Amino acid sequence: xNNFASHGWFKDEFHKxxxxxxxxxxxxxxxxxxxxxxxxxxxxxxxxxxxxxxxGIGEPVTRESTLYLHTSxxxxxxxxxxxxxxxxxxxxxKDLAKVIQERRRRPxxxxxxxxxxxxxxxxxxFEETEAEFVRxxxxxxxxxxxxxxxxxxxxxxxxxxDAVEFAQQIDERALPVYGSxxxxxxxxxxxxxxxxVHGLQALVDATFRCAPEGVQDALTAAxxxxxxxxxxxxxxxxxxxxxxxxxxGVTPIxxxxxxxxxxxxxxxxxxISAIFGIEVDKAAMASIAATAAATQAGRSVAGxxxxxxxxxxxxGGGAINATVAAGFTVAIGAAWSTVxxxxxxxxxxxxxxxxxxxxxxxxxxxxxxxxxxxxxLNAKNQ
Length: 382
Prior knowledge:
Blueprint: H1 3-6, H2 9-25, E1 28-34, H3 40-48, E2 59-60, E3 67-72, E4 75-80, H4 85-103, E5 114-120, H5 128-139, E6 144-149, H6 161-171, E7 182-184, H7 200-210, H8 216-222, H9 227-247, H10 255-258, H11 263-275, H12 280-306, H13 322-344, H14 357-381
Parallel strand pairs: 1-4, 1-5, 5-6, 6-7
Antiparallel strand pairs: 2-3, 3-4
Helix pairs in contact: 2-11, 2-12, 4-5, 9-11, 9-13, 11-12, 11-13, 12-14, 13-14
């Protein structure tokens, strides 16, 4: 392992870069409402993957403690605690109006961005008090998304006919909600009945479309449903880092150090970790394991590939030109993104739940080899 990582520099610098990225990304804050028992916590945990909706957790944001704000990483949840919307809806709306007005003077990460109102299919009833609550939510200037929870489907994926009819009845009210419709979902699979998770992607898409533009990055990092969107954002970060690395690519850098110790590349890895919602300590440990393997194998493996790339000098200390510096940064970013996808899925862990550093090393190095091989092939074809 290089001297920087072995002396803790790498870990400290990674934490610093991650903190910078987290500040830039900010936080997406969702207001969640619905009657008791409609499955709000299950829905939130399925979409955002964080157990922030547990009763008793959260900071009261009004003097009367009607509303509570729970925060976890790039996600904030504003909800009620033990209140029935149909009975105390006016009180909630009054307190919410104060919160929204006061927070609009704060930075975007402290504001409330979107509201979900949840209805349970099994209730088969949407009362006028609920409809009026939704109208008042919209009057506050909040984009509102209507969600029906626990909707059963057939083995072929068709919605239960009663759910379709129930949704039509709600839609006919012409409520001021996004898409002028209710989104049908099931957030938790049931092996006994065979019910599968469904509707979450459509719900996430709707939330992205109505959320303020300034919180798109935070919503991407917070949600766990749309991995493709995370990858697209990671690719944009990689492209930006590659451009910056190319501009600095004429500096003579030994290959073993070029793998990770360029601040541009380190910042890129930290930002990608944040996008995939990897906790900073876990991400730092994984990145050390991954890049250690790459530096150890750099001269014998990647060097043999890169020596065929036009413009690359002697591996031991030649000048890396802009094209190679940019391409190599892309390779690092792509390899690290692959690791982050697996980490976000809860993989790359040993039997005791700790990170499997050997699997991380192997995955990162294999993907890095593949990316460098593509560089070589592209260079030969040019």
